[in-house]
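for the writeup, i need someone to sanity check this before i put it in the appendix. the sequnce is what the collaborator sent (i think, or maybe the updated version? ugh). structure was predicted straight from it, no edits. if anything looks off just tell me and ill rerun, i have time this weekend
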Amino acid sequence: MKSFDENLVLETINMIRLYNLDIRTVTMAISLRDCADRDVNMVCKRIREKILKHADKLVSLAEEVGDDYAIPIVNKRIAVTPISIIGESCDSYDYLKIAKTLDDVANETGVDFVGGYSALVEKGFTKGDIALIDSIPEALAQTNRLCSSVNVGSSKAGINMDAVLKVAKTIKQSAELTKDNDGLGAAKFVCFCNSVSDNPFMAGAYCGYGEPECALNVGVSGPGVVKAAIENLDKKADLGTLARTIKHTAFKITSTGELIGRKLADKLNIPFGVVDLSLAPTPAIGDSVAEIFQAMGLEHVGAHGTTAALAMLNDAVKKGGIMASSYVGGLSGAFIPVSEDAGMIESASKGHLTFDKLEAMTSVCSVGLDMIAIPGDTPDTTIAGIIADEMAIGMINKKTTAVRLIPAIGKTVGDKVVFGGLLGEAPVMAVNTLSSADFVQRAGRIPAPIHSLNN
């Protein structure tokens, strides 16, 4: 196992006290492949027993390790095998019963969220995939801790446009069923291109088919730390110095994350998985990726130069992190969620940050269009067009991209949705009102790009 300089970790104490450094999440990935059965009641029983076997002490031991090192572990989560795979073993599909079982056991273990109510349909659907996707709006409306995801494209397979349109309807229905909570159901759902199987962040976490029986993945965050490091530089420092400073900071953050992850994995007697070194913001002041851009010299996020600054930030974070750990994984980079970042909320509210600028930024960020509120009357076909555009960015660039939109039912541009906690709040942003209908309603799959033929 990698040896650690614990003195280096102790240097981060001021980062914790002053700049909001924390372990954003520890996520236990649990394979449920051995829970399949023809009887859905037996499936639910096995799922409950399997999760409790591994995760019963996850929360208490995470708090113990956090106390030992005086480093906050903000979220404790569970990610399971995509449930479309497990549920289709049953004689009759009852995915809602499985959803409620997952939510109940998440509540019993005390974790914040459970992810994996998911399907991987980039090349086509099975009957189980269709049944699961159809159940998502009701499942998210009737549960509190369940998160869901669907992968609709990849650089190898192309984009399943039938799935894109189906997912767009799912997002709208999820928002409708939870409109009294500002569309919270849609906030717990994300669709992907090139989803990764060891991602510890919600709503897209699941335990991939090639993952071990059980493993612990860690998500580290620290936008405030990066911002402070940049602000400590001479204002005339060149871009090479700026990038080097970010790399050094990412190295320290990642070292801390891996130490905590390995200590907790040892206590749980399970393998350590990966460190996801993403800069994941919160609505707290001083814990914002958008504020990093201001420290770099932009007046506000959304100014011309924002995409270039984000590209440099993302690259430097990855370079610094990869030097600190041999097991960097997940998404790793910088997140740009609107509702979860105080600086993004401010810029979007003032009109500095537009939907189109956010889409441009996703070509170089860690994920994609994240936690964006849109008018509640936005047509399904327009949502499908937004998804298709974002999936195309991921497919062509061989990177993970995602869409997490919240149609604000009964609201329009200038209103806002409010979730509280880490999900924050967001202004309703304008979207292009030109029709995408005739394009997105064409059946079939957008073919994979030429670089997919690389065997």
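DSSP finds 17 helices and 13 strands in the chain. The chain has a mean pLDDT of 91.
thx in advance!!
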